[in-house]
Design goal:
The mean pLDDT is 94. It is built from 9 helices and 22 strands. The protein is an alpha/beta fold and 459 residues long. β19, α8 and β20 form a beta-alpha-beta unit. α1 runs parallel beside α9, α2 runs antiparallel to α3 and α7 runs parallel beside α8. The strands form 4 sheets. The protein has a 7-stranded mixed β-sheet, covered by helices on one side. Strands 18-17-16-19-20-22-21 form a 7-stranded mixed β-sheet, with helices on both faces. The protein has a 6-stranded mixed β-sheet with strand order 1-5-6-4-3-2, with no helix packed on it. 24% of the residues lie in helices and 31% in strands. The protein folds into 3 domains: 56 residues, OB fold (Dihydrolipoamide Acetyltransferase, E2P) (Beta Barrel), CATH 2.40.50; 196 residues, Rossmann fold (3-Layer(aba) Sandwich), CATH 3.40.50; 148 residues, OB fold (Dihydrolipoamide Acetyltransferase, E2P). It binds S-adenosylmethionine (SAM). S-adenosylmethionine (SAM) binds next to α5, β17 and α7.
Length: 459
């Protein structure tokens, strides 16, 4: 392919798409340039920073003509904060962009032309929808900074408020800022490995109001912790727990192995539908509670359980979908690679009095074929894989098992389309595709798909 640019060139073009990583996509003579900064419809000049075989990377240096889809954003740092790549884009346009992404990938990568793809289910109020924030603390020009990393860098974009978080996060950040200043708490420095405060995590339940604050520290001692807790309690009456997580390693991993409760309980309580979940400092939980119920209700609708079915929930996390479905199925098997998540899943089953679930810890590509070889067959297989999609062994086992239905929950339309193609070529028919907007103002695209087995049973 002819590469029409060199490193250091400045080119002009229009951003026609946003990549998974949140970069603008500009085409020049059919060649793709991913640029940092800008929104769909912006006419931009871009400096080329790196040339690859089939694409180049660049940085937007100027917006020559702003997109007609731009709206005033409530976020004052959206130009450089790496948190949301679609901040400033009209919400209607965000929804259109996400629906089109699913449609295009299923057509182009999946080769599936005839499939019914519904318009994405958006949020009535797409602001302050998140129940968890996890951000680093650092130092800039002698001042503590707390916020998301800036686009394409490890510098921190300082925030007082974040418009996609529940406002309890703002209150916690305010208290932490005051604590740092008053008691001269030293933020951690990535380069030297010195300093105390590394990360803060705030989790809360929209249903119970329970709030947890976690400080990740480079050391065991948290100076003036009583005064810190008082500051938090004064601002956040719903505060249930404060945890110190200790991470003294020079690593990109946010949390260390040891946690200690410095105020209140070890866990907070949240609900999805009628199900109760204990949330610990470490446990994964869906971050958009409103849309999680929309997504899981679709999963239930697509699975259409009558009570006699055996269900597999592959990539089950802490077992949220498994438990949702177990209420309507005969038996559910959940498989997940993170051991702690399986421990949480078992505990969640116990506190909800659900006994018809069996959770397996390990890689799905190993456990799922093994259970099939033991003679366990599912009527419905649910998969909710990470961004890279299902492992070929998982797809292969579904093909051999021939469940009546496959419900595929996906956070990446391209790997979804790749997997649907293989399943379609092996007797499964895509019946419905429903994108759900789980992450407004970001480029993340979630969808849920129903496939039914139509191929020959002899195959
Ligand atoms: C998108 S999350 C789904 C979580 C869960 N279904 C939910 O709704 O909360 C994907 C999950 O797959 C797990 N995972 C990643 N690779 C895996 C593998 N090879 N085998 C099993 N689980 C895996 C991750 O730890 C993560 O919990």
């Amino acid at each position: 392919m002819n590469i029409p640019v060199n490193k250091g060139n400045i080119i002009e073009g229009e951003i026609i798409d946003i990549s998974h990583e949140g970069n603008g996509v500009v085409k020049l003579e059919g060649y793709t340039i991913f640029t940092e900064g800008g929104l769909i419809g912006d006419k931009v000049s871009v400096i080329i920073t790196e040339i690859k075989k089939s694409y180049a990377l660049g940085k937007t240096v100027k917006i020559i003509e702003p997109s007609k889809h731009r709206v005033d954003t409530k976020c004052s740092i959206s130009d450089y904060c790496g948190g949301c790549s679609l901040q400033g884009l009209d919400y209607k346009m965000q929804l259109e962009f996400k629906t089109n992404k699913v449609k295009n990938d299923i057509k182009r990568i999946g080769g599936l032309d005839e499939v019914a793809i519904h318009n994405i289910i958006g949020m009535d109020n797409p602001n302050r929808y998140r129940n968890k924030v996890q951000i680093p603390v650092g130092m800039e020009n002698g001042e503590a900074v707390i916020g998301f990393y800036k686009k394409g860098s490890h510098d921190i974009a300082n925030i007082d408020t974040c418009v996609i978080q529940h406002d309890v996060a703002d209150k916690a950040i305010g208290a932490i800022r005051e604590y740092i200043k008053e008691f001269k708490i030293e933020p951690y420095d990535n380069k030297t490995g010195k300093g105390l405060l590394r990360h803060i995590i705030v989790k809360n339940s929209f249903k119970t109001g329970d709030t947890m604050v976690v400080l990740v520290t480079n050391g065991n001692i948290l100076p003036h912790s009583d005064q810190f807790i008082k500051k938090l309690r004064d601002r956040i009456p719903e505060l249930k727990t404060v945890i110190q997580n200790i991470n003294t390693k020079k690593t990109n991993l946010v949390m260390g192995a040891k946690s200690q409760v410095i105020y209140g309980e070890e866990k907070i309580i949240d609900y999805i539908g009628n199900l109760k979940f204990y949330i610990s400092a470490e446990s994964f939980f869906q971050v958009n509670p409103v849309q999680t119920e929309v997504l899981y209700s679709k999963a239930l609708e697509y699975a259409d359980l009558k009570g006699n079915e055996t269900v597999f929930d592959i990539y089950c996390g802490i077992g949220t979908i498994s438990l949702f479905l177990a209420q309507k199925a005969k038996k559910v098997y959940g498989i997940e690679s993170v051991n702690q998540a399986i421990k949480d899943a078992k505990e969640n089953a116990r506190i909800n009095g659900i006994e018809n679930v069996e959770f397996h810890s390990g890689n799905a590509e190993e456990i799922f074929p093994k259970l099939y070889e033991k003679g366990i067959k599912a009527d419905v297989v649910v998969v909710d894989p990470p961004r890279k999609g299902c492992d070929p062994q998982v797809i292969d086992t579904i093909i051999k098992m021939k469940p009546e239905k496959v419900v595929y929950v996906s956070c990446n339309p391209s790997t979804l389309a790749r997997d649907l193609k293989v399943l379609s070529e092996n007797g499964f028919k895509v019946m419905e595709v429903q994108p759900v907007d789980m992450f407004p103002w970001t480029g993340h695209v979630e969808s849920i798909i129903l496939m039914t087995y139509c191929g020959s049973k002899e195959k």
